[in-house]
UniProtKB/TrEMBL annotation:
It comes from Halobellus clavatus. Its cofactor is [4Fe-4S] cluster. Binds 1 [4Fe-4S] cluster. Pfam families: EndIII_4Fe-2S (PF10576), HHH (PF00633), HhH-GPD (PF00730). One of its GO terms (molecular function) is G/T mismatch-specific thymine-DNA glycosylase activity. It catalyses: 2'-deoxyribonucleotide-(2'-deoxyribose 5'-phosphate)-2'-deoxyribonucleotide-DNA = a 3'-end 2'-deoxyribonucleotide-(2,3-dehydro-2,3-deoxyribose 5'-phosphate)-DNA + a 5'-end 5'-phospho-2'-deoxyribonucleoside-DNA + H(+); Hydrolyzes mismatched double-stranded DNA and polynucleotides, releasing free thymine. This is Endonuclease III. One of its GO terms (biological process) is base-excision repair, AP site formation. InterPro entries: DNA_glycosylase, Endonuclease3_FeS-loop_motif, HhH-GPD_domain, HhH_base_excis_C, HhH_motif, Nth. It is an enzyme of class 4 (lyase).
């Protein structure tokens, strides 16, 4: 199997250096033109592909342009407007509630604090981090989605399982200047090479430092299970 560097700090630094070279243009893939659109898109993206979200929001953002629009929406109609999004019925309720809260408590604007954002329906720390970073240029942490969770475990950067615990460990390991871009790099690599079910280890720029490499390891450290 690949041999990770001696310390997790060194491993994390080497991984990010290589990924930055492999994906120099890595950035957020959701489409949005303002903070409200960003918030809506990220809420919809939970357990759904960004590609599907971008397809749905192309029309959605034409119809709903303000927090008041979402607050006043008929929930069933809103659910129909986002049909095709995973858990579209639940997320329609989230969007309507978000619109109501933004109108009632934030003058219709998207707030710029972690506390205010995570008080919104359907918004956890991951979503709030994305909105803060890309909507307000505020970096308070590391966005840990399924790609980040999988790849950091596979590479032996962390043994934590919960996203919150992984985020805490990455914040300790990585310089603050890397918190935002590290997420994009892990996501790019997760989509292109280090996929969940069948990673292409033979084409991976990290294979020689990856203790989960399928080329000579029996176990996927991300899941703790044997490779099929």
């Amino acid at each position: 199997m690949g041999t990770p560097l001696d310390t997790r700090d060194d491993q994390a630094a080497e991984v990010l250096d290589r990924l930055a070279e492999a994906y120099p243009d890595s950035t957020i893939s959701l489409h949005f033109t303002n903070r409200l659109e960003l918030l809506v898109a990220v809420v919809l993206s939970a357990q759904c592909t960004d590609e599907r979200v971008n397809d749905v929001t192309e029309d959605l953002f034409e119809k709903y342009q303000t927090a008041a629009d979402y607050a006043a929406a008929d929930e069933a109609e809103l659910a129909e407007n986002i049909y095709g999004i995973t858990f579209h019925n639940n997320k329609a309720g989230y969007l309507q509630s978000i619109g109501e809260t933004l109108e009632a408590e934030h003058d219709g604007e998207v707030p710029d604090t972690m506390t205010a954002l995570t008080d919104l329906s359907g918004v956890g720390r991951k979503t709030a981090n994305v909105v803060l970073q890309h909507g307000h240029d505020v970096v308070e942490g590391v966005v840990v989605d399924t790609h980040v969770q999988r790849i950091t475990r596979r590479l032996g950067i962390t043994e934590e399982e919960r996203p919150e615990a992984i985020e805490t460990e990455l914040m300790d390991l990585l310089p603050e200047s890397d918190w935002q871009q590290s997420t994009h790099l892990f996501i790019s690599h997760g989509r292109a090479v280090c996929t969940a079910r069948n990673p292409d280890c033979g084409e991976c720029v990290l294979e020689d430092v990856c203790p989960s490499s399928k080329l000579d390891s029996d176990v996927d450290l991300a899941s703790g299970e044997s490779w099929e």
